[in-house]
Write a structure and sequence with these properties.
Number of strands: 13
Structural class: alpha/beta
CATH superfamily: Ribokinase
Number of helices: 8
Oligomer: single chain
Largest sheet: 9 strands, mixed
Order of helices and strands: EEEHEHEEEHEHHEHEEEEHH
Number of domains: 1
CATH topology: UDP-N-acetylmuramoyl-L-alanine:D-glutamate ligase
Strand order of the largest sheet: 5-4-1-8-9-10-11-12-13
CATH class: Alpha Beta
Length: 290
């Protein structure tokens, strides 16, 4: 049985200093669901990833990385008519990296409901989706909705990470409507502190809500109790993949049946591993390294 089924866009990422002055850059692959899948696989969980990549070198790199980590890529489709998307991250001293998106019309954004394997999702223990995939276009949103509906019918646990990216949405109002809708369908909700107003209808006592509070750490409200964990105290190289790594750690601990404080702790461990690495996912630990 698959422990976690996830779907989304995996894409290339070029990390650099200020592009107009920099002479060197680093090439990698990334994506919130991509990082989650790798993080869970390294901890021994069976994870399946669905999406589309281009018939290009970036697409080949995505598939090579996922296969190498033991992620099930049976449902990844290689698209001839579109390229794999790309992010450009420019580091800035004392500030969050500036991210430029080159993913309009990308292979990953062409995910459709027809690409969603209803039976495989229904046989998994958990479905994980994010607001990033929902923001990629109408077809991608409908694919996320189809996956959520399939999980709901089969009584599969639904995990949802809000991951609001304003540059991907036509308007805040549309983002709020969609993100709140998906959040209300979830059993396990991951939200950043500054995203809480977007998903107010989902902030009910019955739902397990995990809040990323940045440097202050994270908290969870579960079983009508609140638990807190401090942020990781490690040398920071790049914070870009920390949130996705945290989700992977938390979900892993939930699958293992650990308590909410233990789930926060494992999430923090994976977040610490991510921020102390130049890659979103390459520094993530194995089960033995936890």
């Amino acid at each position: 049985m698959i422990d976690v089924y996830t779907l989304g866009e995996a894409l290339g990422v070029v990390s650099s200093g200020r592009v107009r002055h920099e002479n060197e850059a680093r090439l990698d692959v990334c994506g919130p669901e991509f990082t989650l899948a790798v993080g869970l696989a390294r901890l021994g969980h069976r994870c399946a990833f669905a999406g589309k990549v281009g018939a290009d070198e970036l697409g080949a790199r995505v598939l090579t990385a996922l296969r190498g980590e033991g992620v099930d890529v049976t449902d990844v489709r290689v698209t001839e008519g579109a390229g794999t998307g790309l992010l450009l991250r420019e580091t800035r001293v004392g500030r969050e990296p500036h991210v430029s998106h080159y993913r309009s019309g990308s292979a990953g954004s062409r995910l459709t409901p027809g690409n969603v394997p209803i039976d495989r999702i229904g046989a998994a223990k958990m479905l994980h989706v994010s607001g990033v995939t929902a923001a990629l276009g109408r077809d991608a949103l409908e694919a996320v909705r189809a996956a959520v509906a399939a999980a709901k019918r089969a009584e599969v646990v639904i995990s949802f990470a809000v991951e609001y990216r304003p540059e991907l949405w036509p308007s805040v109002r549309e983002a709020e409507d969609v993100l709140a809708e998906l959040a209300c369908e979830s059993h396990l909700l991951f939200v950043h502190q500054d995203e809480l107003d977007l998903v107010k209808p989902a902030l009910t006592p019955e739902r397990e809500v995990v809040v990323d509070r940045g440097a202050k750490g994270a908290s969870v409200r579960a079983d009508r109790m609140r638990y807190d964990a401090p942020g990781p105290q490690v040398p920071i190289v790049d914070t870009s993949g920390s949130g996705d790594a945290f989700v992977a750690g938390y979900v892993s601990a939930a699958l293992d049946g650990l308590t909410p404080p233990e789930r926060l702790h494992r999430g923090t461990l994976l977040s610490a591993a991510a921020v102390s690495s130049a890659s979103d996912w390459q520094g993530l630990p194995t089960r033995a390294e936890l």
